[in-house]
Design a protein that fits this description.
With 123 residues, the protein is an alpha+beta fold. It is built from 3 helices and 10 strands. It has one domain: 2-Layer Sandwich (Alpha-Beta Plaits). The strands form 3 sheets. Strands 1, 4, 5, 8, 9 and 10 form a 6-stranded mixed beta sheet that branches. β6 and β7 form a beta hairpin. The longest helix has 17 residues. The two termini are 16 Å apart.
């Protein structure tokens, strides 16, 4: 899904450049697991949010990724290793996570390769 999101963002950015609009880019972090979605707050202020350890880990993975890159945990990589090519990075102790995390940087999937220069996608 992150590869498809990145591909679509590149298409949108091309159109936006033609219109002289600001383009978007950014790192992607992914984690699979349980989370809670709920409304929090009071009658004066209500917000809808997701919470949980896996949400925190996904945010930490995203913040560790270089712009245009997709990073996932070892556990995620184990679930999709037959669909994506990824390389492990050095393990890291991430804030708020009690165990060391081995981040995997996605290089591409069958028929798709991410550019080494700027994270752009070539098919």
């Amino acid at each position: 899904m992150a590869i498809e999101m990145q591909d679509r963002l590149l298409e949108m950015n091309s159109d936006w450049r033609n219109r002289e609009w600001r383009v978007l880019s950014g790192p992607y972090g992914g984690q699979y697991g349980l989370l809670q979605c709920r409304q929090l707050g009071s009658n004066e202020r209500m917000d809808y949010t997701i919470i949980g350890a896996e949400v925190n880990l996904a945010a930490r993975l995203q913040s560790s990724a270089e712009p245009g890159r997709i990073v996932m945990s070892y556990e995620n990589h184990a679930l999709v290793s037959d669909m994506v090519r990824a390389q492990p990075s050095p393990s890291d102790q991430m804030k708020g996570i009690s165990r060391e995390i081995v981040p995997y940087v996605i290089e591409g999937s069958v028929g798709i390769e991410l550019s080494e220069v700027n994270g752009s996608i070539r098919k």
